[in-house]
Fold this sequence. Notes:
This protein is α+β, with helices and mostly antiparallel strands. The protein has one domain (2-92). It is built from three helices and seven strands. The strands form two sheets. It has a five-stranded antiparallel sheet. A hairpin with a 6-residue loop joins strand 5 and strand 6 (67-72). It starts with a strand and ends in a 10-residue tail after the last strand.
Amino acid sequence: MxxxxxxxxxxxxxxxxxxxxxxxxxxxxTQVERLxxxxxxxxxxxxxxxxxxxxxxxxxxxxxxxxxVFLTNEDQTHGTKQQPVIIAIRSGPAADQYESCF
Length: 102
């Protein structure tokens, strides 16, 4: 995403690209939770309501000026025995801002 001609976030939806900690698209959400521990903020599909979409997990940089956001398919697996997986990762200063045109 660009804001004022500046790159402020990047969206990754390909499983071959990993974060520095090793998280990647296709990984189970529970694996990402174990990887980042208490630093990770988790917002579940059930917390958002039926129209909220999938689950979201976020970790901020130490100065909170940037973040990595993990998007899951929890809306599709809610109420089933399937575990949610990461379907996309956004990173950058504007990663936690909603962008309607991915």
